[in-house]
Amino acid sequence: MTSAVACPYCGSPDTEFFSLFGQQLMTVQYYCRACRTPFERVRGRDVLRDAERHTRRRDGDPPGQ
Ligand SMILES: [Zn+2]
User: Fold this and answer.
1) 10 Å Cβ neighbour count for 44?
2) What is the pLDDT of residue 36?
């Protein structure tokens, strides 16, 4: 089950995690596949958990550090 983040522009849940760091420290970046628009979201526990899952998916990167 994926935690869907709704796009603030078109409302589509078809979004993907894009970057852990937005233009501000408290935001992360998402990308909407429906309208192809990147957007930022204020960082929260759910966001960090989502980010963690994405970073863990990479092979070769040591977790945590
Ligand atoms: Zn959208």
Assistant:
1) 11
2) 97
- Ligand 1 center–CA 27 separation, angstroms: 18
User: What is the Å distance from ligand 1's center to 14 Cα?
Assistant: 8
Contact 54, 17 (CB under 8 A): yes
**Domain boundary assignment for the chain:** 15-56
Q: Is the pLDDT of residue 28 over 80?
A: yes
**Cα–Cα distance measured from residue 39 to residue 58, given in angstroms and rounded to the nearest whole number:** 23
Comparing CA positions, the residue from 3, 27, 24 lying closest to residue 15 is 3
- 33 Cα: distance to centroid of ligand 1 (angstroms): 7
Quick one: what percent of the chain has pLDDT higher than 70? 74
Ordered alpha helix ranges (H), 1-65: 45-56
